[in-house]
Amino acid sequence: MTDRQMQIGEVAERTGLSLRTIRHYEEVGIAVPSARSKGGFRLYTEADVERLMVVRRMKPLDFSLEETRELLDLVDRLEAAGEDGGDTERLRERLDGYRQVVDARCETLRARLEMAEDFAATLRRRLPASG
Question: How buried is residue 77: exposed, middle or buried, by Cβ count under 10 Å (0-12/13-18/19+)?
Fold first, then answer.
């Protein structure tokens, strides 16, 4: 059974990314559609949508396009190598480096969110309720 193919509008709706952003990711080689229709329309599979969602989830963590491309490449290469691939140990080590960066950036975001919530609570206490 072949994977259902979607046009870019449906992919944009499902991912919450703009058409422009999805096209840009294709241009820079981060998320290339699996196929094109005879009329030249981009056609995406469920795997393409999942890849775009990974990219979307990386955005709040301030990864550059180059870092995003490298991380996705590592994941692709690790999957292609399989469990017994000779290069898997090195790939896993590099991927673990990214995991450590992600963990640190998430912790930073948690701290910033806590400060923002404290500030919002301060404002609520100091300002009379409206309505």
Answer: middle
Looking at the chain, how many residues does it have?
131
pLDDT for 46-72, tens place per residue? 999 999 999 999 999 999 999 999 999
Residue 25's Cβ-count burial label (10 Å; 0-12, 13-18, 19+) is buried
The reported pLDDT for the residue numbered 106 is 97
Phi first, then psi, for residue 6 (nearest 5°) are: -125, 150
Q: Helix (H, G, I), strand (E, B), or coil: what is residue 6?
A: strand
**pLDDT per residue as tens digits for the range 73-97:** 999 998 888 766 668 889 999 999 9
In this prediction, residues 92-116 reach a mean pLDDT of 96
Nearest-Å Rg of the Cα atoms of the chain is 20
DSSP 13-46: HHHT--HHHHHHHHHTTSS--SEE-TT--EEB-H
Q: Rounded CA gap, 74 and 91, in Å?
A: 6
Residue type, 92: R
